[in-house]
Design brief:
By secondary structure, the chain is mainly α. The chain has six helices and no strands.
């Protein structure tokens, strides 16, 4: 019975029907808004998950409020504490081989 009513409703829609046109417009606007929201979400996720260059860690720390409010000795320790240890690849490979 429900199937027959839906067929009758579909048969009642004509080409120049304004209510059907309004429905199509509303659905189109909702889908366009949804696609825009997903695009913004994708861009946000792309930026949040981007891998930062390790050489920029010091500059990132220097732009923080904690760094600006610190005295000179604290600033120095903040700058040196963020620099990653650089390991020579050959030296590291030798250590790995010696552990095996």
């Amino acid at each position: 019975m429900v199937f027959q009513e839906s067929l009758l409703w579909a048969a009642d829609v004509s080409v120049g029907d304004t209510s059907a046109s309004a429905t199509v417009v509303v659905i189109s606007v909702v889908l366009i808004a949804l696609s825009a929201a997903l695009a913004v979400l994708a861009i946000w996720l792309w930026r949040v998950t981007a891998v930062d260059n390790s050489s920029l860690m010091v500059l990132e720390r220097m732009s923080s409020r904690r760094y600006r409010e610190a005295d000179s000795s604290q600033k120095e320790s903040l700058r040196t504490g963020t620099v990653p240890a650089v390991v020579d690849d050959d030296h590291q490979a030798e250590e790995v081989r010696s552990e095996e």
